[in-house]
Input
Amino acid sequence: MPRWFRVVCVVAALGNTVYALLALSRGDAVAFFGNGITAGFFWWPFVSWLRHRREPEDAGPVEGAPEDLRARGRRGWVLPIVLLVVVGVLGLSRAPSILPAYALVIAALMAWMLRTGGDEVDFTADALVVRHPRGGEQRYPWQDVLELSWAPLGWPRLGAGPVARVRGSVYATPGPASPAQLATVVLVGVPARRWGRLQVRRAAALHAIPFTDDLLQLIETGKRRPRLPGEMS
Output
């Protein structure tokens, strides 16, 4: 997790926690719900990073065949669900009249958490294949992949996924001068995202493709040119 994102999470979480406690003290259940849930949203990724910050980035040896990327780490939803229940118990003790609306919100969120779909990535012998939840797929033959990387978070869907530069038009995205995230896989929690990153590193090693950490950030901040030295302009 980038340092700037950790700072944003902590500042936002602390601010919303204070506002939630103030709202609870004056009996404003609506403000308490809003700020309490928002605080939990920001505390969650920071606490997950804090728990696993001393673990190695790779969850195993780079040598070996990569596993296909599928949704993983759904146990990470336990913390936000517990938070929602705690916020609900505290808030409803002050304003029981909003119980039906709160129960509906909880049910909708839990259904979304359990059923949210993401892309799937297959590492076949001849290509990296991205399968989308609503059908359709994209294939990137290994001989066309110039460089691989990893994006730890995806938006608007929660997850992460492989980043690549591929052969093609200079104006294409992804292309030789424009790396892009190829898929968003639902990987909840730090261990799941590190497992996903390891599979992409294994695929890169297996097919002799350069792997670069934080490729998108390096190019966006001007710390590296899009192309590697020796590639044709």
Notes: The two ends are 33 Å apart (CA to CA). The beta strands are 120-123, 127-131, 137-141, 145-151, 161-166, 180-181.
